[in-house]
Write the structure tokens for this entry.
Amino acid sequence: MALPGLTFDRAVLEQTITFHNRKLDQIEARSGGFTKIHYLVGSRREHPMDAAHLLSVVPTVRESDIYICGPKALVWAVVKAAEDLGISHDRVHHEEFEFHKTVVNT
């Protein structure tokens, strides 16, 4: 039996919910209830990506696969939260990226 899929999308500002997010909405709509996208808009204080917060946002998180993509610190916070909740590593799918400063010579 397949487990439900879960995706968290955390943004600091409502305005940052973009075209990418509309694509996620389409995936959710076409999943027949199998996939649920959670938009967490606000600061890390409002949405700490720890086990207690994930469980409060999604009470069924322990029965779900988790998909997370983002900066390394965010990804590893979710990976640790999943581990703390007893979620198997093979049910946590992640990809991390880093922001790089652009240096302009003047």
